């Protein structure tokens, strides 16, 4: 009898807590998938509809599995999955979503939960991507649409292979409340999960493989990289025309105008109908703007007013709870999508509207659907919360793809699997320094982020915000509340115009860098930690502290860098903030040159700069090439040839690949694109000839050697 009892107890224990062995399958070069327990069919990748960009992954080539497989431990117990990944002593971690205040994530405790950012890096953010990257050159992605608890080197097991030293707090000043931890541990509230591991050999390689697994980064239309003005929320058709006219008369570039809630007859919840008093002829207004080279983007949220024409038909396919008294469509159901996105198409996309700004899909527990809500598909409220932003991006993007017209818009939430979507995240937070940290972290999260400009207390703040915004994925003033214009502060209007024109001049560079994002997975805006030669050697960090203290560069580059970043292949941007007259810039190893003048700046050192109010510090690496075009009021149209000035910096011979396609359609997916190689040295420059049968929007090419 006793034997039977012991056997029964053993069976129960094994059922309740089952250690799992993972069978790793290489699904792409350098990418492995492991399955634990019984993963849920609805996950981040399925919600996003992510399809790997196989050509890009194959081009990266093979690599070995980057971790000791025996040190990865998984357990399924009580309907939950426990994961444990090894962590070396000198290893730093990056990622875990769009964080606003921290780049280093080791030692953090996070709950990865889609939410509006509330001023604390605790995992609740607009894109809580469950993907992390190690300084040792690998990445890990957890493909689950659940709230994931993360202990990123913060928890200590009793049976650790490398236990922390026990210290006496009474007498030992080195005692710490956070002892050394040798693992990343996660709790996924599901009885199984898919795990992806990405090889390096560098951290950048791991990020690239992650983005390429998700389809490659987005490739916006050329006009999306121009300048954007979002108008005050009740602006009418005449106001739109007046806005475009003012930009033209004052000589400011403008590529699209964003209409805020007032374009709809009612909002919060939404009718999705044009307000006939403010926009009596929407099609005429949209087409008139297109003739002027200005596109229209529409704000919306997905919560359906009882007065919307689709309310009754979509009601059976909505959740149990409302948001602002609006019905919440279950976007996992084809019937709901047909009705909802059909409404976003009819009388909007089909009359020439170029994109959407999708608001309020992120969070706010006080107004969004609660976790007790139910949806007719059977997917939980939690799963819907984690994927709603993804699905809004996916299905609006598909509308435009079916039209063979590219779009570029804004969204308040994303997640793992969304790298290929042409949307930029924004929010209600407005700390300039934290905006730059978010821009840095976006490169680890497979997302884009804009440090948008809304309003400012002083002309100095206005200019400083505008300057950094120009070096971001979307150059935009969001005047939905303030009604601000680029010329709102007359005392800095000339400087604002100079930077707005610079944005347009740099379009060939930005466009080529986004092409690398799409075809190669390289984030166009990213942390210094992904730049070769920047981060101090791990052995030095661990064993040669004295050397670090004697070398200011090594000391600075070993610390968390949150206020400078790489913009494309060749540019280092170090924004200035209100009240600053000088700042320090960490220049990686290799010679660097001032972007504006070509003057030598330094090599593997920390420099102090006093740029004045007119500029922010920007540097170009040795041999760097920046293709420029003339400043234009609007982005070039398909087939419009534009002259290119190739600026070359430094002493080393430089090579750059300039991307070209029609700039507006998806024909590049069928091979209608080209990369042309630019070579420059002190002796002169050349560009490879145009490829016969491919788009060629490049006119005359000249070369400018930037010297002091």
Question: How would you sum up this structure, described in words?
Answer:
This is DUF5110 domain-containing protein. The protein is of the alpha+beta class. It is 24% helix and 24% strand. Strands 1-4-5-12-11-7-8 form a 7-stranded mixed beta sheet. Strands 19-18-17-16-15-14-20 form a 7-stranded parallel beta sheet. Strand 15 (256-259), helix 6 (282-291) and strand 16 form a beta-alpha-beta unit. It is globular. Mean pLDDT is 95; it is low at 3-16.
Please specify the SSE layout and strand pairing.
Elements: H1 2-16, E1 17-20, E2 24-28, E3 31-37, H2 44-48, H3 54-60, E4 73-77, E5 80-86, E6 93-95, E7 108-114, E8 124-125, E9 131-134, E10 138-143, E11 148-152, E12 183-188, E13 192-198, H4 203-213, E14 227-230, H5 237-250, E15 256-259, H6 282-291, E16 295-300, H7 311-314, H8 334-345, E17 355-358, H9 381-402, E18 409-411, E19 423-425, H10 432-445, H11 459-470, E20 475-478, H12 493-505, H13 507-520, E21 525-526, H14 538-543, H15 545-550, H16 552-557, E22 565-567, E23 571-573, E24 583-594, E25 600-609, E26 618-621, E27 625-628, E28 642-649, E29 654-660, E30 674-681, E31 684-687, E32 698-706
Parallel strand pairs: 7-8, 14-15, 14-20, 15-16, 16-17, 17-18, 18-19, 28-32
Antiparallel strand pairs: 1-4, 2-3, 3-13, 4-5, 5-12, 6-9, 7-11, 9-10, 10-13, 11-12, 21-22, 22-23, 23-26, 24-25, 24-26, 27-28, 29-30, 30-31
Helix pairs in contact: 3-4, 11-12
- Helical stretch count? 16
Q: Looking across the biggest beta sheet, what order are the strands in?
A: 1-4-5-12-11-7-8
Our measurement of the CA-to-CA distance between the termini, rounded to an integer number of angstroms, reads 92 Å
Strand content: 15-25%
Provide the low-confidence segments as ranges.
Answer: 3-16
**Biggest sheet, open or closed, and with what strands and sense?**
7 strands, mixed
Helix content: 10-25%
What structural class is derived from the secondary structure elements? alpha+beta
- The total of beta strands comes to 32
Indicate the mean pLDDT.
Answer: 95
Q: Which term fits the overall shape?
A: globular
- How much is the radius of gyration in Å? 26 Å
